């Protein structure tokens, strides 16, 4: 989620730089990745639509249960189910940013209306932001909105990284329910909101450019919808009491913390600002393939193959597992591809934490 915290920004400045030997591109790995996956680039609507709709339906049904059930234990279980299901539904925002126009007619609008606006994370917050993270000359640099050298920062930066995410629902209500209407009346505030509070980024230095053309129109209706929802959510207290709002915020907070934990282990975060080769970007990223039993839960919709996704950003989530198996079976054991695969979340958190404590 968006992180604009001055304390975290201070931790962003590593005390010293260490010379690193540049990693050259591995031609065999890149060639195999391209050749073995040429037939896997088509998004399958028979997978996308049922997966997305079932996740959203289950999430909202469980959220209703968490609000309405009198039994505390059942309400808590229902809240956890709501959090996990809505987290999966929300994760489709990542697919939207890579999907070719017209690949899945209606999916863009459906996702925003059913998930993006009700969770106050409309897709404009990620569009034209995430693709910069994949730019060859931006990844891992100060111009990458989704990169911080977390492994090279102070140890206290990691818990702060998670705590900030827990406050996301409060921040989003303020962003859309307060700043959106105020910024329409105060032009200087509007510029600040657009530049600093309109991106799902983690780089405190990132500033967003003004939208143009069709994207500006999409931004406008999505922001208006999220504004109306945020105001209605707060206004619901006067009709329904505090419980629905607090349960919604608890579920949303849990979902965002889980996503932040996934973000924490999506990369090794060891780059100090230099441009990197594609192979270096891959090795700074993480796959958690089977048999890891829980990765499909905390890294859903193909996010468990994040390193592979950096090699093949156009391959849809449902084909990444097959692409991974083809590469594992084809590439020699000394290929860099094998070094991008890890066992699970906890070993990765430990690895990054140890790196921060060694600074």
TrEMBL record:
<feature type="transmembrane region" description="Helical">
    <location>
        <begin position="224"/>
        <end position="242"/>
    </location>
</feature>
<feature type="domain" description="Fatty acid desaturase">
    <location>
        <begin position="75"/>
        <end position="337"/>
    </location>
</feature>
<feature type="transmembrane region" description="Helical">
    <location>
        <begin position="102"/>
        <end position="121"/>
    </location>
</feature>
<dbReference type="GO" id="GO:0016020">
    <property type="term" value="C:membrane"/>
</dbReference>
<dbReference type="InterPro" id="IPR005804">
    <property type="entry name" value="FA_desaturase_dom"/>
</dbReference>
<feature type="transmembrane region" description="Helical">
    <location>
        <begin position="73"/>
        <end position="90"/>
    </location>
</feature>
<dbReference type="GO" id="GO:0008610">
    <property type="term" value="P:lipid biosynthetic process"/>
</dbReference>
<dbReference type="GO" id="GO:0016717">
    <property type="term" value="F:oxidoreductase activity, acting on paired donors, with oxidation of a pair of donors resulting in the reduction of molecular oxygen to two molecules of water"/>
</dbReference>
<feature type="transmembrane region" description="Helical">
    <location>
        <begin position="46"/>
        <end position="67"/>
    </location>
</feature>
<keyword id="KW-0812">Transmembrane</keyword>
<protein>
    <submittedName>
        <fullName>Fatty acid desaturase</fullName>
    </submittedName>
</protein>
<keyword id="KW-1133">Transmembrane helix</keyword>
<dbReference type="Pfam" id="PF00487">
    <property type="entry name" value="FA_desaturase"/>
</dbReference>
<feature type="transmembrane region" description="Helical">
    <location>
        <begin position="158"/>
        <end position="186"/>
    </location>
</feature>
<dbReference type="InterPro" id="IPR012171">
    <property type="entry name" value="Fatty_acid_desaturase"/>
</dbReference>
<keyword id="KW-0472">Membrane</keyword>
């Amino acid at each position: 989620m968006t992180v604009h915290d001055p304390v975290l920004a201070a931790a962003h400045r590593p005390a010293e730089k260490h010379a690193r030997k540049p990693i050259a591109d591995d031609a065999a790995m890149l060639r195999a990745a391209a050749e073995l996956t040429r037939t896997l680039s088509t998004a399958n609507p028979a997978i996308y639509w049922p997966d997305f709709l079932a996740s959203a339906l289950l999430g909202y049904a469980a959220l209703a249960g968490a609000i309405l059930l009198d039994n505390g234990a059942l309400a808590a279980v229902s809240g956890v189910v709501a959090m996990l299901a809505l987290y999966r539904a929300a994760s489709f925002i990542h697919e939207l940013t890579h999907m070719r126009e017209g690949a899945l007619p209606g999916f863009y609008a459906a996702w925003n209306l059913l998930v993006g606006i009700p969770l106050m994370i409309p897709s404009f917050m990620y569009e034209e932001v995430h693709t910069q993270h994949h730019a060859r000359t931006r990844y891992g640099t100060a111009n990458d909105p989704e990169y911080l050298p977390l492994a090279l920062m102070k140890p206290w930066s990691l818990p702060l990284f998670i705590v900030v995410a827990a406050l996301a629902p409060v921040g989003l209500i303020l962003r859309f329910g307060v700043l959106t209407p105020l910024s329409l009346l105060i032009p200087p505030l509007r510029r600040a909101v657009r530049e600093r509070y309109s991106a799902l980024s983690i780089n405190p230095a990132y500033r967003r450019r003004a939208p143009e053309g069709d994207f500006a129109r999409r931004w406008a209706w999505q922001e208006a919808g999220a504004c109306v929802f945020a105001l209605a959510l707060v206004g619901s207290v006067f009709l329904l009491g505090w419980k629905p709002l607090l349960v919604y915020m608890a579920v949303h907070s849990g979902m965002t913390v889980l996503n932040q934990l996934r973000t924490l282990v999506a990369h090794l975060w060891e780059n100090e600002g230099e441009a990197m080769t594609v192979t270096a970007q891959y090795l700074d990223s993480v796959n958690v393939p089977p048999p890891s039993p829980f990765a499909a839960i905390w890294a859903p919709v193909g996010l468990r193959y994040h390193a592979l996704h950096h090699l093949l950003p156009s391959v849809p989530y449902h084909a990444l597992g097959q692409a991974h198996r083809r590469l594992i079976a084809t590439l020699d054991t000394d290929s860099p591809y094998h070094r991008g695969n890890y066992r699970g979340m906890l070993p990765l958190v430990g690895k990054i934490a140890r790196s921060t404590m060694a600074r």
